[in-house]
């Protein structure tokens, strides 16, 4: 049954890929509106997260961002067809602005390796298309439980010539080896890790279990720390934004490194908060076991 559902989903992505991007975006905005109007779980989680992160915001401000973020999330869904199926040169033409290209050039010139820090902001799949013209990067890949889905995701990402390593101990060791050889790795920094792989650090003033991997790699290698995201512009195309991360991410103290990492992510999010994935339970695990923000 799960395999059948996956087949239907893949067919839907192929069909959406046939649409002009403007129509796909309208469909995505409609999906977001449905998530809003039905008072969905994603809306409730988004509201909780935004109230925690922006306690001074009024109800109207919170509602405005939640509604926009759900529409942005819907667009992210309907952009999968474009990101995964369109000819690569056609996708690349949608990247019409680059902010901070000089930081990428500096990282390449230093030739000490690069750690790309890519939060769930805007369309992170577009980054694969952008970076392939400058470098070869390797990302950790979490295997999907359904083989058909796993193969589909693997093949669509591999077509843009991205290195993929498993999200396990072996994969982590591969990333270290790549950095030792002055290569490029990309890490999604804003998902909750396992307890033993993380440390609690403030994220918009709230305690968030934050992965230690980036800090550990940064403290043991001279790799350039570069935050990156692709924000959706009003014309439906994309601006890739590149920013150096806080250098305290290199601190050997995991708590200091994680705090600096989260501060760097916050600065990215504040550029376009309505395009951040607020529907993820970022504060699900707390040091006080009796706290559950998402009841």
From TrEMBL:
It comes from the Bacteria. Keywords: Acyltransferase, Cell inner membrane, Cell membrane, Membrane, Transferase. GO terms for molecular function: acyltransferase activity. The keyword DNA damage does not apply. Pfam families: Lip_A_acyltrans. Its main location: membrane. InterPro entries: LipA_acyltrans. It is found in: Cell inner membrane. PANTHER family: LIPID A BIOSYNTHESIS LAUROYL ACYLTRANSFERASE, PHOSPHATIDYLINOSITOL MANNOSIDE ACYLTRANSFERASE. This is Lysophospholipid acyltransferase family protein. It comes from Alkalimarinus alittae.
């Amino acid at each position: 049954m799960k395999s059948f559902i996956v087949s239907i989903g893949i067919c839907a992505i192929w069909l959406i890929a046939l649409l002009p991007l403007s129509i796909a975006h309208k469909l995505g905005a409609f999906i977001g509106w449905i998530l809003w109007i039905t008072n969905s779980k994603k809306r409730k989680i988004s509201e909780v997260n935004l109230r925690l992160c922006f306690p001074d915001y009024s109800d109207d401000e919170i509602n405005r961002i939640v509604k926009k973020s759900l529409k942005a999330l819907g667009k992210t869904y309907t952009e999968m067809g474009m990101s995964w199926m369109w000819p690569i040169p056609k996708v690349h033409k949608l990247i019409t602005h680059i902010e901070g290209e000089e930081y990428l050039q500096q990282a390449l010139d230093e030739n000490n390796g690069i750690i790309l820090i890519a939060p769930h902001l805007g369309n992170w799949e577009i980054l694969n298309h952008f970076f392939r013209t400058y470098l070869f990067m390797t990302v950790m890949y979490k295997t999907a439980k359904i083989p058909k889905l796993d193969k589909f995701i693997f093949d669509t990402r591999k077509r843009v010539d991205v290195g993929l390593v498993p999200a396990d101990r072996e994969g982590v060791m591969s990333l270290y080896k790549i950095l030792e050889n002055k290569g490029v790795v990309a890490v999604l920094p804003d998902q909750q890790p396992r307890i033993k792989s993380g440390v609690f650090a403030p994220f918009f003033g709230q305690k968030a279990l934050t992965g230690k991997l980036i800090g550990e790699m940064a403290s043991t290698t001279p790799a350039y720390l570069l935050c990156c995201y692709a924000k959706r512009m009003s014309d439906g195309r994309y601006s890739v934004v590149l920013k150096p991360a806080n250098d305290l991410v290199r601190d050997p103290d995991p708590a200091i490194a994680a705090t600096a990492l989260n501060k760097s992510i916050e600065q990215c999010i504040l550029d376009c908060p309505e395009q951040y994935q607020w529907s993820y339970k970022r504060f699900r695990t707390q040091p006080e076991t009796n706290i559950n923000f998402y009841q």
